[in-house]
Specification:
- Belongs to the Tdpoz family.
- This is BnaC09g38850D protein.
- This protein is α+β, with helices and mostly antiparallel strands.
- It has three domains: about 150 residues, Sandwich (Apoptosis, Tumor Necrosis Factor Receptor Associated Protein 2, Chain A), CATH 2.60.210.10; about 160 residues, Potassium Channel Kv1.1, Chain A (2-Layer Sandwich); about 70 residues, Serine Threonine Protein Phosphatase 5, Tetratricopeptide repeat.
- It is about 40% helix and about 20% strand.
- The chain is built from 15 helices and 13 strands.
- Strands 1, 6, 7, 8 and 10 form a five-stranded antiparallel β-sheet that branches. Strands 2, 3, 4, 5 and 9 form a five-stranded antiparallel β-sheet that branches.
- A hairpin with a 2-residue loop joins strand 11 and strand 12.
- The longest helix has 23 residues.
- It is flat, with a radius of gyration of 31 Å.
Length: about 450
């Protein structure tokens, strides 16, 4: 007899699953329109605009037309719109415009896409300059006798929800990946002193390092150590115009104590020992430079300097910016720019502006110009020693600063309602599109 066949069911392929996720990235902005009565008579189709704000990787702005957006409304209504102020095509979003009841009764006037079903889905803005809003947002005669105006001002709040979609697949496993410790390993190599093949000489003091690490991190060191015009003796690098950290002779803490005792005798209690901060910054910059080259991060300044002072950190960042530019350490340069940006004050603004100009830090320069040109800051900054240094080292900046102050004054006038119209043909009541672009 033959062996009976065993029936087998067909092998099933494993089921795979994926999910499409769609959600909104929400953002909010509040726009106060002060001196409302002064905006009346601005003219049909002319507006005052908010500062731009970011939501969902796009830039937006609120536009308020005190005499209406279109001639057919006979200036009877105020118009209110949200505009896409950055480049973008077919940006899908939900919108909400709220005119705030400033009496505290909570009877706000709200037009919103949120919290309700939309027949045709989210609104689509085709390109930069497209708008959503209402030509006949509120009748002027009713508005001016309402609780929406308080102290001759209006308050508008908006909400923008940019629609984002992504697809997630099935995850059958999850293996955590350790955080990179490359900086830790190179830092340990520097501290151990093993394999060092180059010596820095700074003000008769020496520091050991590794040629390959220096060359990999800095194109300036790469050219100096391995380039066709390299020095004959590449085992020793002499650095000029940089102070040596004397904590290689004395302990760092002994140095701080000695200097502090000296200044405590020279200054009465409460005085600001600015020279101490300068000395400490010079003491630390060489060590910080090598620390960054190996660790790819700055050390804890409070731990290194023994004091928690914003002024000291700013001073160190100013010195390090010069060093970072000299050795083309772009990441260190940006870190210094960021810290100097955070530490801008009346006393530091002019010096930082000069450094930004000298070392081609355009973003930092723009921030400094904006800070210095403010009316409440300008006079005080001009009385600092840093401003004297700015005038001597970068005289061309004075002309640039003057132009910036003039532009700021023009912007102040336009914000009060005298800004020229940007959109020639506008959009319909449903906020379709405009042809001209935002500036």
């Amino acid at each position: 007899m033959g062996t009976p066949e065993v029936s087998r069911s067909p092998t099933k392929s494993p089921l795979t699953v994926s999910t499409s996720l769609t959600e909104t990235v929400d953002g909010f902005h509040e726009f106060k329109i002060s001196s409302y009565s002064l905006t009346k008579g601005l003219g049909v189709g002319k507006f005052v605009a908010s500062e731009t704000f970011n939501v969902g990787d796009y830039t937006w702005a609120i536009y308020f037309y005190p005499d209406g957006k279109s001639p057919e409304d006979n200036s009877s209504y105020v118009s209110l719109f949200i505009a896409l102020a950055s480049e973008g095509a077919d940006v899908r979003a939900l919108f909400e415009l709220t005119l705030v009841d400033q009496s505290g009764n909570g009877k706000h006037k709200v037009h919103s896409h949120f919290g309700r079903a939309l027949e045709s889905g989210p609104y689509t803005l085709k390109y930069r300059g497209s708008m959503w809003g209402y030509k006949r947002f509120f009748k002027k005669s009713t508005l001016e006798s309402s609780d929406y105006i308080k102290d001759n001002s209006l308050l508008v709040r908006c909400r923008v929800g940019v629609v984002k979609s992504c697809t997630e697949g099935q995850r059958n496993y999850n293996i955590p990946v350790p955080v990179s410790n490359l900086g830790q390993q190179f830092g340990n190599l520097l501290e151990s002193g093993k394999g060092c093949d180059v010596t820095f000489e700074v003000d008769e003091e020496t520091f050991s390092a590794h040629k390959l690490v220096l060359a990999a991190r800095s194109p300036v060191f790469r050219a100096q150590l391995f380039g066709p015009l390299r020095d004959r003796n590449t085992d020793r690098i002499e650095i000029e115009d940089m102070e040596s950290p004397i904590f290689k002779v004395l302990s760092f803490w002994d140095c701080i104590c000695l200097v502090w005792i000296f200044y405590s005798r020279m200054y009465h209690p409460g005085s600001s020992p600015g020279a101490l901060l300068l000395l400490l910054s010079l003491l630390t910059q060489d060590k910080v430079l090598l620390h960054f080259i190996y660790w790819d991060e700055l050390p804890d300044m409070q731990e290194l300097m023994g004091i928690d002072s914003k002024s000291a950190s700013t001073l160190v960042a100013q010195h390090l910016l010069v060093v970072a530019d000299r050795y083309a350490l772009e990441r260190l340069k940006v870190i210094c720019e960021s810290r100097l940006c955070e530490g801008i004050t009346i006393n530091t603004a002019a010096t930082t502006l000069a450094l930004a100009e000298q070392h081609h830090c355009f973003q930092l320069k723009a921030v400094c110009l904006k800070f210095v040109s403010l009316p409440e800051n300008l006079k005080a900054v001009m009385q600092t020693d840093g401003f004297d240094y700015l005038k001597k080292s970068c005289p061309s900046l004075l002309t640039e600063l003057l132009k910036y102050v003039a532009r700021l004054g023009e912007h102040s006038v336009s914000a009060s309602g005298y800004r020229k119209e940007m959109f020639a043909d506008g959009c319909d009541a449903n906020g379709r599109r405009v042809k001209q672009r935002l500036h």
